[in-house]
Specification:
The protein is built from five helices and seven strands, in the order ββββαβββαααα. With 200 residues, the protein is an alpha+beta fold. The longest helix has 20 residues, at 180-199. The mean pLDDT is 85.
């Protein structure tokens, strides 16, 4: 299981903020590759004894929080000394990642792409999906490639969405090599829109 972190807030029904596990919070601590741009993740609900649908999201942004930045005054203790003399000192630095929910997988394993009906819960665990899970999420009941969430992402109006979609298409093409020509059409459309829309 590639645990990454937990949900700490939302900006909308599909836009979530995940705090990456810091030192001592989870073993092993997630490596930066686990929460790279364009990574697909699963978001679970923290409800004991109940099966719940898992939200599927994709990482589209990273924010680094460092309250010490800009504080130029002298320090009474160094970071190393704080570990010894104040072990309960709360480290306020954090890595936050933006996750866009692009679908859901229900208890029976059925996939629905687009705006998910359920919402994530605060402290809901976030983990990286395996290659097999990414393939399943993109496979329709007939076995064809599904990318129904692409239109949802393109409507977000964020400058990172075009590179995100191009990154997703590159990843999906490796899982569905027979869909290369279809994916190239979508890739060209996204590239064209990313050039024309800012100018328009």
């Amino acid at each position: 299981m590639s645990a990454i972190g937990k949900i700490v807030k939302s900006n909308s029904h599909i836009d979530y903020v995940c705090q990456v596990y810091g030192p001592g919070e989870f073993n092993p601590q997630p490596e930066p590759e686990a929460y790279a741009f364009g990574t697909f993740v699963g978001i679970d609900r923290e409800t004991e004894g109940q099966a719940n649908p898992r939200l599927i999201g994709v990482i589209y942004n990273t924010l680094l929080m460092n309250p010490d930045f800009g504080t130029l005054g002298p320090r009474l203790s160094s970071r190393a000394e704080l570990d010894v003399f104040s072990p309960d000192y709360l480290a306020e630095t954090a890595t936050l990642i933006g996750v866009l929910a692009v679908g859901v997988v229900d208890e029976a394993g059925r996939v629905q792409q687009g705006v998910p009906m359920p919402a994530a819960a605060v402290n809901g665990p976030v983990r990286r999906l395996s290659e097999a899970e990414v393939r399943t999420f993109h496979t329709s009941p007939s076995g064809a490639l599904m990318l129904h969430y692409a239109a949802l992402l393109m409507r977000q109006g964020d400058p990172l969405i075009a590179p995100l979609l191009l990154n997703i298409l590159d990843s999906v093409e490796k899982l569905f090599p027979n869909e290369r020509s279809r994916l190239n059409v979508l890739r060209n459309t996204i590239a064209w829109r990313s050039i024309v829309q800012p100018a328009g």
